[in-house]
Design brief:
heterotetramer, A: 260 residues, alpha/beta, 17% helix, globular, B: 312 residues, eight-stranded parallel β-sheet, four-stranded antiparallel β-sheet, 10 helices, 14 strands, binds flavin-adenine dinucleotide, binds flavin mononucleotide, binds FE2/S2 (inorganic) cluster
């Protein structure tokens, strides 16, 4: 069920250059049942900025009634968000969309989690749930540069974790796909979130003989499926009328379902 | 609620608040959030003869106190709207206003003829003003004679009253309103979006894939208020006002300007519960104005009345 | 500053930033705050043949991300502007663009003939688009043929290049631009304010004594960007862009759209130091865009160029 | 000299119903040299609301580098201002305009200070300066009702203070003019700030045989004399071209100078 709630900030930390980890408290976590869903946040009370901002849920702590998001301070909205202090309240709409299907992999199998930049956060909650189920997890996380790497340790606690940076300042130099190739990783399923070129590479290379689930990003209006801002073509009808909405049908799709 | 019922051609409204076309889909998403029967009416998404996918993405861009959209009239087409969406909506006790779009006169006439037969469609809203469609359609919304003729043709086939949705992107809005009144329109809805554009600061390219789009939200409210103020004094058609409505106070301002009901668009994206909130807050505001019924304040800005002294 | 000099008809600008007409008076108030010589130019308040008191107050009202004004062209009249204000401004090393207004063709011609003789007036800005004056003046800004003829007449008498200031309150801005180009204009300035209104929530009456007024500020920027984008592709005149500029980033967006210089209006009221701030911040932004000179980015939104990939 | 400064809030108190006393610290007080001037405040960082709000200076404490304003929480802007906490910063432009001429009254003479509602605040700094100069002060302060009366005690410490309320819930029932008549007050000069009908009554009744100075209010744009939003006709040319700007020529004018 979608809820709109004023959640209270319990912690806000800059965990890497311009990367913030924000924890919020409220009833909302009770409705969060799939890793990979997102929330739509109003970062100010007034009209500036007007629209909500979609941010993935990175961690759910139902016991503490808290959830965590990790975001990059980028434009006006995320900058305002980053200035908020513990104790302040944020208007959150969520949980939204459909997340990663944990049921698609069995206990004892191996899941490869591939994240790029600010696509990494939702993989954290996913990884936790997979591990709890008894799935072996491997993480391949790509970043621009050392300064913006985050959660390396947290992911390492859950499973083998490879870091790649575009400039080689941390982990392997290059892209996540280079790591997967070079390390000759074996796995039963891929879950991924990150820039479209990365998702496209994974779809092209692995979807023919693996289950691959991809989380997409698109500019949004409503976030709930009403405004048709975020539609994409389905893969079987690339120029036709059939479509999926990233906000409510996604953001996670099976590779081959929609046109990237 | 007492004092909020409004009677308009074809429409018996519990209250004068309705979601604006294109900002509420066909109601499905919002039906999970609240009971749609509490709305005054629902203006459904524009319907065209054939299904349309609409424009490539990005389709929205934020602006100061507003947003641009270039959805491009994505919709499942007349047949599916008629046979699937409208019957689904019939479970709610709420009149539907069907937004009719097209690129030729024949398109409009066909959609109007068919969709007006649906039992829960109580009125049509003729969308002659969508800025996001590339074909010749722009003339319908900007040339009075063309708008008049289209209105006439649609009136001939429609089984329910016809409201015409005016574009603000014209030199003289009163001329447009008079023309569609001459064409037989039963009411007006105004305003549609202003044409606007935003450019990406890194690439220099338009943020919208369609390049330009329609500007909506609080930013355009003063333009809408001015147009309704002008038009309501010059034509005798009822007006459903829209443009940047976010609060019950905004609704009052629209009534003062000359509106008889109000539609809420963009605000549904900011707060999906905005329509019920406004409906809840309205009675107290109406009460404070010292009138029994909200309709009494329509046009107060230009009707003579005892000026209340409000300086403390 | 390196990379910011701009050459336009009649105008050799240190930088492309200037206060917009009506938002800077004749510069006296701001001269106490900073050295006016640092500005690219100054667009002075509209000047009419005779002094004008303007409209009754209230003359301003706030709106979402904008404001309405109905000053009504208050000014001390041609003679005083010529003999007092312009000589006073001559102490600064900054070209003046004189905003010329009137209610008849003769008015415009007389002001243009006289004021263009002042040594520090380097260009005229023909204000054919002031929404706050009740007389027939509206035709000048909305009927292409009328605008063209006025431009011609003014060109005949002006000793300096003539820029025509376009109104956004028209169906087709490109037609207006082409008409004044045909009339011999040397440049365009755009946009003037959108017509708008706000009503008082207690009395129901318009907040402005003049009832309607001109909407300016960030709210209108997407409309201005769209119009400049369209016009700059269809005419070969340089454009001085304006409407909601508050930051150096906004200036870049105007250049991308097709502007060759930018005027700052309402933002001067929010922050009287905004023009110097923008001028200070511009060089770094230009640098980051990888060009040597700001003029290189004029029209980037529609000129073909290597699309830079900016996705992280 | 007009300065734009980010001043820090040192205190914010609700001193009567919806009436707030706000004290700010910065360099600005050093430029404040006339009682009755005002500041133009930006109540938020962003575009909502867009314009500054004019508020009179109620107290200047140069030693502490502080000044105080008193305002009524009314519309959007003052509501946002009222939510600010000590430690936060506010963008202030000031001091603006011309204040009350203290030099127009001599030591030993009597000044009548007449305030109405939110016109009362600037009279406080004025009264302090008059008293310091050795002028006898009488205050007549009018309010709507008891709940919105403020600074009665502070004014009483400086001189005889009469309160009038429209509904009679505090002080005399009625208007400030009733008090002046009934108490048969004697004085050499009037200084006043408040609603226009009150100022008009004072001008009509007393300006023929007293010096009367009135502080006006008008909707403003720039606050510095550039936009011509706040002009009024001069009294000697009520339909002509001559004018005064409330923001820069005023807000204080001699009675008879401008058309009320
Ligand atoms: C489903 C989903 C999940 C996301 N999860 C995360 C996350 O966990 N962490 C994170 O850092 N970012 C995430 N993003 C991206 C995040 O939404 C944008 O970075 C953010 O909206 C930028 O807002 P801004 O005000 O800082 O930027 P501005 O550029 O000022 O925003 C202007 C407008 O563009 C939109 N916009 C700008 N960039 C993006 C973008 N990349 N995607 C979608 N809309 C955008 C904004 O929402 C806003 O409407 C996610 C996006 C989506 C769609
Ligand atoms: C010189 C001067 C000194 C003032 N001093 C004080 C003071 O010491 N204490 C105090 O409480 N108030 C004072 N006021 C009035 C104060 O400026 C308004 O109450 C305030 O601007 C209202 O803002 P808002 O956002 O709450 O109201 P809104 O109604 O939301 O404001 C909308 C717009 O109208 C303007 N506005 C609304 N009411 C007034 C008004 N009465 N006068 C001028 N502009 C107005 C606002 O500035 C804003 O631009 C003074 C006004 C002036 C001109
Ligand atoms: C995303 C979006 C889609 C819209 N689609 C339609 C449409 O299909 N038909 C139509 O007549 N108006 C459409 N509109 C215009 C709205 O109905 C409304 O007239 C306009 O947005 C102004 O109201 P607002 O400021 O409350 O949004 C759309 C507006 C938006 C924001
Ligand atoms: C208070 C005010 C007065 C104005 N007076 C004039 C004027 O005299 N002549 C003119 O051509 N434009 C006038 N304008 C319009 C501005 O020059 C400018 O075109 C418009 O405000 C858009 O820019 P902005 O959004 O930066 O303010 C005025 C605008 C304002 C706000
Ligand atoms: S964001 Fe509105 S439909 Fe997806
Ligand atoms: S407020 Fe701008 S001139 Fe007075």
């Amino acid at each position: 069920m979608i809820v709109k709630e004023l959640c209270q900030i319990t912690s806000q930390k800059e965990i890497a250059h311009d990367i913030f980890e924000l924890t919020l408290k409220g009833e909302l976590p009770n409705s969060m049942n799939e890793p990979g869903q997102f929330v739509h946040m109003k970062v100010s009370n007034g009209l500036d900025p007007l629209l909500r901002r979609p941010i993935s849920i990175a961690n759910i702590d139902k016991k503490a009634s808290e959830f965590t998001v990790i975001y990059r301070k980028d434009g006006r909205g995320t900058t305002i968000l980053s200035e908020k202090q513990p104790g302040e309240k944020v208007d959150v709409l969520g949980p939204l969309g459909h997340g990663f299907p944990v049921e698609e992999v069995n206990k004892g199998e191996t899941a490869l989690l591939v994240g790029g930049g600010i696509g990494v956060p939702p993989l954290y909650q996913l990884s936790k749930e997979l591990v709890q189920k008894g799935v072996r997890v491997i993480h391949v996380l790509g970043f621009q540069t050392k300064d913006v790497v985050f959660y390396e340790e947290a992911f390492s606690k859950l499973g083998k974790t490879y870091i790649a940076t575009v400039d080689g300042t941390a982990g392997t130099k290059g892209f996540v796909t280079d790591v997967i190739n070079n390390e000759e990783l074996n796995f039963d399923i891929i879950y991924s979130c990150g820039p479209t070129p990365m998702l496209r590479a994974l779809e092209n290379n692995y979807s023919s003989n693996h289950k691959v689930y991809l989380s997409l990003e698109e500019r949004m209006g409503c976030g709930i499926g009403a405004c048709f801002a975020c539609v994409c073509h389905t893969a079987d009808d690339p120029t036709g009328f059939s479509y999926k909405k990233v906000c409510s049908d996604g953001p996670v799709f099976k590779a081959g379902e929609v046109l990237l | 609620m007492k004092g909020l019922q409004v009677e308009l051609p074809g429409l018996s409204l519990k209250n004068p608040i309705m979601p604006a076309s294109g900002c509420f889909g066909f109601g499905r998403e919002f039906s999970d959030l609240y009971d749609l029967s509490m709305l005054g009416a629902i203006m459904i998404k524009a319907t065209t003869v054939e299904p349309r996918f609409g424009n490539p993405t990005p389709r929205v861009a934020e602006t100061s106190a507003g947003m641009l959209n270039a959805i491009g009239l994505q919709n499942p087409g007349l047949e599916k709207v008629y046979h699937v969406e409208l019957p689904w909506l019939a479970q709610f006790d709420v009149p539907i206003i069907a937004n009719v779009a097209g690129s030729t006169e024949e398109d409009y006439v066909q959609v109007a003829r068919e969709i007006s037969k649906a039992p829960n469609v109580h009125a049509l809203e003729l969308n002659i003003s969508c800025p996001n469609v590339k074909t010749g359609g722009i003339a319908f919304g900007t040339i009075p004679e063309v708008a008049k003729n289209l209105t006439k043709k649609v009136k001939e086939v429609s089984e329910v009253p016809v409201y015409v949705k005016l574009s603000p992107n014209v030199t003289n809005i009163v001329d447009m309103a008079k023309a569609v009144e001459d064409g037989g329109a039963d009411g007006l809805t105004m305003i549609n979006t202003l044409l606007g554009m935003r450019l990406d600061l890194k690439t220099g390219q338009p943020i919208l894939a369609n390049k330009s789009g329609g500007l909506s939200g609080p930013a355009i409210k003063p333009v809408a208020i001015r147009m309704i103020y002008e038009v309501s004094q010059q034509v005798s058609l009822p007006i459903i006002g829209m443009g940047g409505v976010q609060t019950a106070e905004d609704v009052i301002e629209y009534f003062f300007a000359g509106a008889s009901a109000v539609a809420v668009g963009t605000a549904n994206f900011v707060d999906p519960f905005v329509c019920p909130s406004i409906i809840n807050e309205l009675p107290e505001l109406v009460d404070r104005l010292g009138v029994d019924h909200i309709s009494e304040i329509t046009g107060r800005s230009w009707k003579t009345f005892e000026k209340s002294n409000h300086r403390a």
